[in-house]
Design brief:
Dihydrodipicolinate Reductase, domain 2; six-stranded parallel sheet; eight-stranded mixed sheet; globular; Rossmann fold; 325 residues; 14 strands
């Protein structure tokens, strides 16, 4: 799709609170325009469309997919993603889907194959990868500030209310909702692990409630992670090397500040704070990158490619296998 067809016309599936944040951030991307929204909840659909001035509103996503939109953003419960993404691809629409893109590696690879065959763009909305703070972290590591990176740890645990939301229904998963951030960060920094060791709690209906895991790499490097929807776990991260270490505070996946700790013997080290500007709700860098990629005719984005996404889900599959064994 040539750039002269901008702005890219986006349709949104799901009138959730998250969709509201995304549409607000879409408004900050010059070459993108949200022109349609679909939701089965007519009252919510009407309120959503009215609030954002969206003229095209569809109680049925099928009708929206048959319209003249170019791309769709999907923010619906986890278990619906495979079917909705498949339908959007079949309709010839480019797709940005909330995580998890699929429930397992098999689904992710199948969706990627379908998108390639159809000649449309597909990406999971892993906004953390596009956070400019992580671009800065990559440069810090490349510059050798941390020395040889040896380990990382990250967690995301929150005692969510039992509110009847989809997270508590069959198909819900704290690993795929929250734990995917620590797993993705480990893949970003250290790659695909050689070993996985995990513990966790899973309900009889298959909903995983909590887990902690260690990912092992060559030369004794490791990553530790945890996630939970029944207890609080410090949602911060740290990356450690042979010369220094970095800490990223609560909400590490959307944070705009990190601290480099330069230790010296007997506590005489110093700290260096690195801060980046946050655009909108934090999704703007990802939305801009995806929109630019689609307009340039790309079928995926190198920052979060189909192959990299599938490898992350392979790790998640092994964690789930171990905690359900």
């Amino acid at each position: 799709m040539p750039a002269d067809l901008a702005p890219l016309r986006w349709g949104v599936v799901g009138a959730s609170a998250l969709s509201r944040q995304m549409v607000a951030d879409f408004s900050l991307v010059p070459d993108a325009a949200v022109s349609a929204v679909a939701s089965r909840d007519v009252a919510r659909l009407t309120a959503f469309a009215d609030d954002f001035g969206i003229a095209a509103r569809y109680p049925s996503r099928h009708d929206m997919f048959a319209s003249d939109i170019d791309a769709v953003y999907i923010a619906t419960p986890h278990v619906t993603h495979f079917d909705i993404v498949s339908e959007a691809i079949a309709a010839g629409k480019h797709v940005l889907c909330e995580k998890p893109l699929g429930m397992n590696e098999r689904e992710v690879r199948e969706l990627a194959a379908r998108a390639t065959h159809a000649g449309v763009f597909l990406m999971e909305a892993m906004w953390m990868k596009f956070n400019p703070l992580y671009a800065r972290l990559d440069q810090i590591i490349a510059d050798g500030v941390l020395g040889d990176v040896r380990s990382m740890r990250a967690a995301f645990g929150a005692a969510f209310a039992h509110d009847g939301s989809s997270r508590w229904m069959p198909g819900g998963s704290t690993l795929l909702d929250q734990g995917i951030y620590p797993v993705t960060l480990a893949h970003m920094l250290l790659g695909r692990p050689e070993t996985v060791s995990a513990r966790g709690t899973v309900r009889e209906d298959g909903v995983d409630l909590r887990q902690d895991f260690t990912l092992g790499y060559a030369n004794a490097r490791f990553a530790q992670g945890a996630s939970s929807m029944v207890e609080w776990i410090d949602p911060s991260a740290a990356v450690s090397g042979t010369e220094a270490f970095v800490t990223i505070g609560a909400g590490f996946w959307y944070a705009s500040q990190l601290t480099i700790h330069h230790p010296l013997p007997w506590g005489r080290g110093h700290q260096e704070v690195v801060e980046v500007e946050r655009e909108g709700n934090g999704y703007v860098p990802m939305l801009r990158a995806v929109t630019d990629a689609i307009l340039a005719g790309a079928l995926e984005h190198p920052v979060h490619s189909a192959a990299a996404t599938a490898e992350i889900y392979a790790t998640c599959d092994e964690i789930r296998r171990q905690i359900t064994a």
